[in-house]
Design brief:
342 residues; two-stranded antiparallel sheet; 5 helices; 16 strands
């Protein structure tokens, strides 16, 4: 009876989460929040809410992936992003009894030095731009298969003399059956709003609903994932040159059903020869199509990475090339204080 009730409440919670976010639409600010700090997720296409691994960096995608098994784990991340931007962060997890856990983290997004100009085109000198997100996460087992989690975030942005602040919440539910090595998740990200505006206009957070499944293929060392994102808005139209050999030709709108569907989906595949090692490959059609009017390469939309755990330390790397002029690189390091002290 208890299992039936917890399952009922889980389904009700997921439905409420989806309904709450479905009302959100329009242009947004704070879009840096959509960039994952997890090298494992970045290697799988930048979106994944359902992979199960002993890696605290994964909780930034889904707070329900946090658990007491990550007790006293520390995660560090660094990313060299587009245009010379540098991102870095850290998080720490702690168990809260046998069925709960909490974590705290901080993420920094630095965009380097830029030149400022007034409305007449006269230089006003250089300035820096950056964002910071401080987060607190709590998760708890609903039953043997379901786990729920919540992350609260304070976001602070500073661009030249302009500053802004916001509060956001992520909600997540994960279903995991270890017998079948099957995982499914529903996540709603960035519910909330600004508490300090940049100027007169109030900006929205990039609210999103994401669904994901991950499944090991039989007894093989291969695992596949499918993640659906941007589910608050079906039409994700984009433009590309009418003549693909001439980037300066007129742009045409692409809004066919198949293209819209693919822009919502991210595909990931992993080779896991041992429990402490993985090699991952991802494909994100939205990233590829977003680069249609730029100098994209054959690799646009693809990402790859690998991870290994050696004694008390875990290492993960990921690379991607959104377009021919930009190669991004991410590094993750994790360790467990209990294992270090043995």
């Amino acid at each position: 009876m208890a299992n039936k009730l917890t399952l009922k409440y889980s389904i009700l919670l997921m439905a409420m989460m989806a309904f709450t976010a479905s009302a959100q639409d329009g242009s947004t600010a704070y879009n840096f929040l959509t960039v994952t700090p997890s090298s494992h997720v970045y290697a799988l296409g930048g979106y994944n809410v359902s992979i199960i691994d002993d890696d605290i960096n994964l909780i930034t995608q889904n707070p329900a992936l946090l658990g007491p098994e990550m007790n006293k784990q520390i995660g560090l991340n660094y990313m060299r992003y587009i245009g010379g931007s540098n991102f870095a962060g850290a998080r720490f997890g702690k168990s809260a009894g046998e069925h709960g856990a909490w974590a705290a983290g901080i993420q920094y997004f630095g965009y380097g030095s830029m030149e400022g100009y007034d409305i007449t085109g006269v230089s006003t000198g250089s300035f820096n731009a950056s964002d910071i997100a401080v987060s607190a996460t709590y998760s708890h087992d609903i039953n043997d298969f379901f786990r729920g989690g919540i992350t609260a975030k304070y976001i602070y942005s500073k661009y030249e003399s302009y500053t802004g602040g916001a509060l956001g919440v992520d909600l997540g539910v994960n279903y995991y059956d270890p017998g079948y090595e099957f995982s499914a998740s529903l996540v709603v990200t960035n519910l909330g709003g600004q508490i300090k505006k940049f100027a007169e206009q109030r900006d929205k957070l990039p609210v999103d609903v994401q669904l994901g499944v991950t499944k090991q293929i039989g007894k093989s060392p291969f695992r596949v994932s499918l993640t659906a994102h941007h589910l608050t808005k079906w039409y994700l139209n984009y433009y590309e040159p009418a003549d693909k050999n001439n980037a300066e030709s007129d742009l045409v709108k692409r809004d066919a059903f198949g293209r819209n569907l693919l822009r919502h989906l991210v595909f990931g595949a992993e080779f896991i020869p041992k429990n402490n090692m993985y090699v991952a490959l991802g494909y994100n059609y939205k990233t590829r199509s977003d680069m249609s009017s730029y100098q994209r390469s054959f690799l646009s939309g693809f990402s790859a990475g690998a991870g290994i755990k050696v004694k008390a330390f875990g290492f993960g790397v990921a690379v991607a090339q959104p377009h021919s002029g930009a190669t991004t690189f991410m590094l993750n390091v994790t360790t467990n204080l209990k294992e270090l002290m043995r």
